[in-house]
Predict the 3D structure of the following.
Amino acid sequence: MRVFRLHVNGDPVEVAAPEHWTLLEVLRYQLGLTGSKQGCDKGDCGACTVLVDGTPTLSCLSLAATVEDQQITTIEGLLPAHRAAGGEGADPLQESFDESGALQCGFCQPGMILSAKALLAENPDPSAAEIKESLAGNLCRCTGYTQIYEAVLAAAKADMHAAISTDSAKEVQS
Amino acid sequence: MAARDQHGAEAPWDQGFRVVGKENRKVDGLSKATGEAIYTDDIQLPGMLHAKMLRSPHPHARVLSVDTSKAEALPGVVGVLVGAELPVRYGVIPWTPDETALAVDKVRFIGDEVAAVAAVDEDTANEALDLIEVEYEVLDAILDPEQALVTPEPPIHEDRKRRDNISKHVELEFGDVAAQVEDADVVIEGDYTFHSTTHAAIEPHCAVAQPNSDGRITLWSSTQITHYVHRALARVLELDPARIRVIQPCLGGGFGGKSDPFSLEFVVAQLALKTGRPVKMLWTREEVFYAHRGRHPMKMHYRTTAKADGTITGVDAKLLIDGGSYSSFGLVTTYYSGQLLTGPYAFPNYRFDSTRVFTNRPPNGPKRGHGSVQPRFAFEIQLDEVAEQLSIDPIEIRRRNFLGEHTETVNGQRVTSNGFMQCLEEVEKASDWRERRGKLPFGRGLGVAGSMYISGTNYPVYPNKMPQAGVQLKIDRSGLVTVFTGGNDIGQGSNSMVAYLVAEELGIKVEHVKVVAADTDLCPVDLGAYSSRVTFMVGNAAIDGARKLRKQIVEAVAKNWEVEPRDVRLMDGTVVDLSAEARSMTHVEAFHLAEEMFDTLGSTGAYNTPTLGGDYRGGTIGSSPAYSFTAHVADVEVDTETGRITVNKVWVAHDCGRALNPMIVRGQMEGSTYMGAAEVSLESHHLNRFGLHAGPSLLDYRIPTSVDTPELEALIVESIDPEGPFGAKEAGEGPLHSTIPAIANAVFDAVGIRLRHLPFTPAKVLAALRAKEEQA
Amino acid sequence: MLRLPKFEVKNPATAEEAVAMILEIEGDARFIAGGTDLNPNMKHGLFAPERVIALNGIGELQGIRLDEDGSMRIGAMATLAEVTKHAELNQFYPALCQAAKLVSGPQLRNMGTLGGNVMLDTRCQWYNQTYFWRKSLGYCMKKDGSKCHVVEGGSKCVAAASNDTAPALMTLNAELEFVTTEGRARLPIADLWQADGIWNKKLPHTALLVAIHLPKPAANSHGAYGKLRDRGSVDFPLFGIAARLNFGSDGTIEDAALCAVALQARPWPLKKAASLLIGTHPGKDDFNDAVEKVANLAAKQCRPMPNIPGDHEYRHLMVPVFTRRTLHAAASDEGPVHHV
């Protein structure tokens, strides 16, 4: 056993777990953050994707012992972060995945949404090809991906729209 | 009778729909998007043990002894289980119970389950597996279905009436196919192969059992068939089923891969009873590949006869089906392989001769489009060949042979609504077929194919006259309606569908409906998510239950307002008075009035199929209350130097009766088409020369990533079925079928080669191109 | 879930400390960089170290920088994603960036490092499998057994080098900087390999790769990487080939290098074939003719074996196709050669 000092969804957490455990195991079975899924055991499917310092990372191939100094974001962290920033409802990506029908069985989607989240953070106005590329490590078996692309595009548009209205609001104020 | 009549003048319809036909969100969408939804492996119980399975390293062997003493002695091991402790046989089809939870006498494929260990953690359980000593007598393995056909010894299953390796044989003839050959203007005959593919749902199988102090047991399992698991558990555990509760949590994909009872369900239940502690077993991805139940590989021979105008006069089929090591749904598969080909085209003469054999391979079962994707592949290529010989446009030949609506197929299946002609028109238009087909540069082409599929069948897996689907509705004074249904939501959205229909029928908002599903203690029986039966059957049951409640609510409000019931209209959570005096109340107030008048409110709804099917043995297998129809056009490019087929785009038009939620229907159509396209060149459930799965991982079993998936365009066709819920039919499996032959036919248009043997690997494409060059 | 073996994790702060840690215990210990190769391999029971030494806290292993002499220093822990996006690397060493970009999928490139890709374990369909799977067949000579299932009766392991970036680094004459107990040493990458699939490197696993040095590029250097695989993402190479072409001021080829991968234990340089290109003029017939000759010679020298998944005869058919396409792509700066 080792006490891991992790930073998960903005919270500092100390958690004891066997030293050889992966980040995924610690998140799921010690912290109860079961939103990160396990589909393939070994880095082939992307269902376990979390953000480590904002970067999509396979938690099933990350040792908990190697991410102690980094900021980990799981799917459970998005809604509270959105609310903390003054938003309503869930994160715009979560809302748009729901609105676009991108959630069928939903098992791959926490990882998919986090990959999309990182993409939009880096590139707020991605092309269809860029979306495809950035999701090429997240296997989905239900949707044929089409409604996922629609969801990411819709979220990008909503984000841009929000940014523009904030900007114009600022302009009006000034 | 039209669909409108079936529902009655007072039921909401068309312009009057407030929920149906709209792109509503799913009832569980946000819970999945936020990580809140609970799947089986997300369940953790205090004191829970972790179980692991010991599997056979031999494809065929007798189990002489299993010594677990060293494993039991390992600190941390709490329970060990061997086959002799659970000897009762089961099988999803009650006529062919040939499985046991753990091997009792024999193992029949590499990966077959032999023993199980429950320990304080997974590492300890794994360590204990290595300490179990099994003595095997290795037997000859049969890995090839052709060999199985002619090799009765050793029989893979020894105590059946017949001593051979034939699992099921069906031969049916309608009309006289042989007589057509002489009069035919064209006869096309050929061999076709469909290889082995699997479901590869992203969630691996998992089960958790919790024993209760009163002797009851609860099982959470990633299953598509809660009710059959319930029955099988009672049988194998030899327990009163009333003491067993089976719950399906949120399910991470099924596609038919979770529609058998699986060994882990019995094993965790028995270990829980034995140890008195909760037990979980989560299969590794490798184990999921061994559990398999994937699409049956088939070797198919077809002969089609036609007249000069393209009219088909007869179809003669002989199929060899590789069943793998157990029966699973095999009886049904064998019938489906012939019974489901008789639309969307009419042919007056038809024969099929299907033989399913046992081999020492992981068991095959139902994968999306059960039993009928393979024959459809062969026949739609053959139909393309007929068109080519007769110089008829491939879409035109499909039109000329259209079966029609409100008619009967050659094998006696009643067909109601049929939107196939419109499907053809939609894909023809969207793909710009007339301008492009046959006119694209060498290397690029278009191909078409069509298909039909069932919306459930009237064959319940075990004979009974009770309803196939039931729901129960309960009303709360808050205005919340809770619907209890045995239906399994496997991601296809059936819980949402139930909520939409109940909301529509009761005139309330979707958010005022809560669906509790797939819990045998709470929900009335539904047979499960297979054969595309849920929308049709559970949907009709939901409408039935809601309609009964609506009648009471309307009556109570009418009495209160002193108006005729026909003047009371429920919509969007408001009850309005249509008579002269305009007034309204909330649905909550209306519920209160009804509760005052009728006491506590609740209702049940049920659905059973009408009597269907031909009057012959097997005539009810594949007979559906309604059939869906599909047409695909594929646009492909072939790199003649590498042999790689790139599918640029697939247009899929599907007649789903009525799209209860077009967004969800599109998702089913796109997902089906993606899955079909994946079977063309990428996916292969391949065994190596030892009979061991060559690559049981999501690395080596190549399911398409986003960049491997063609552009997909879904075109919904609504024929409004007279018996479907508000006119709906299935959309979850039909739209897979014709993807594959459409791509095969497009390859012919692109480079002039007829590929008849799946998978179309680049190597095969190159070889065919070379052979064509040599011929020329 | 597949389990990792029980080990302790050490987090050293310097390369020297890391090397001391790997040697100080008697049992097996392993360095872990991005974890994308070692972790699946440990889950398959291919390695069961008692100690895992995490390299992510070692400063000198990080970062990519241009040195004063015009050479590039890529820290061994620089991720494949960093390499892919690096402006100067893209400009001067395109084959490397293309190869890095075609490794697996996005998340794996975020985690996987260039050093890790160089040190990647060889792969084989009879080896990269679970403990149960391998045990069912009585194991193989690379791990726990003595047989070879690729070459029946074979006495040498033929597991395939499957690192996309290795052939690119070979064509670029990269130098590898290692720290061992002896101190620091630089080794031309061509000298790293040995023809043994069990361990295809001449240095033991206890040698720590700290940096990859790329010599200052020639003024007019072009390159490309070609990769054959089934899917457009995730998959290891079924065949890979890197090319570098240096153009003279008149546009003739002054120097050329070619190297293939996913054949046998070593990345496979094609020196003689590449030399046929020297003196030819890209865009003209003499170059095109030379490319055909190179492609045919490559097909003779590259003999894929049934070691990794896929039809090895087909892989062989693709050797000349990918060689030709990659050379043309290098000459016209249109790489990578890949189906997506």
Q: What stands out?
A: The CA atoms of residues 335 and 632 of chain B lie 25 Å apart. Chain B has 21 helices and 28 strands.
